[in-house]
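FAQ: What does a multi-protein file look like?

Like this. Sequence, then tokens, then the next protein.
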Amino acid sequence: MAGKLIEPTIISDFNNHLVAMLPTGFYFDDARWEKIWQRYDQKGETLTMADLLELFPDEPVLQAKPLQRSGDMSFK
């Protein structure tokens, strides 16, 4: 099932070890599934957001939003 995720998704291996956490809005399909598992097998540990950004540099939901300093303690 290809498409954008409507909620955050956790991928775990058969031992329930965390493979990756995918954010809401991430486009997910079989090809990306394979890339994530290949990278996990190479790295041997949980993939970080930096790993996902390296795999999918054009994925908009992985891009950091610039922080606008306004003087108060809220994030915009």
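And here is the next protein:
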Amino acid sequence: MIPAHMSNLYSWRALAYTDEHARPVHAAMLALEGEEGPALVTKTGEQSNLWIAAMIDAGFALVTTTNTADIARAAPTVPAVAARIDLTADHGAVLHGTFPDATWTVRVHRATNPHDPDTFALRRLITNTGRVLLLAGTGLGINEHTWDISTLTDAALVGTPTAGWITAHTR
């Protein structure tokens, strides 16, 4: 997946959509993109560019739409042994993954202003629901400051993003 030393871009968003029964759902989404070409690092230390295949094998699904509500409705629940996110006391997070041949960790640094209402709202959403929609891929064009994912349309056409619901824990 993404090696711990690889820099990454991420964007948190609050989602509001209706489920398959037309009930309102509020959730948190984390979009993640490696600044460099993401590589799977096997347990033997070998790097391989099989990121998308590894994500799908772990239970994520390819993103075929650019509508975040549709992505949220269609995304599968990923087993906690494959991927999970832990919220830290300093308002950051640590994303963990364990695939059959690889392990990975991504540290999501705390917000610049931990007193920001959006940060607290997202944290409350995650605490209440116990899950996060993880959207990961290349070419997303993430802007960490505006929460913008400007090129999701282009990335979805190329078939690089994957999505899945992952278990969230607070520390």
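Q: Is there any per-entry metadata?
A: Some entries carry free-text notes. For the entry above: The chain has one domain: 8-170.
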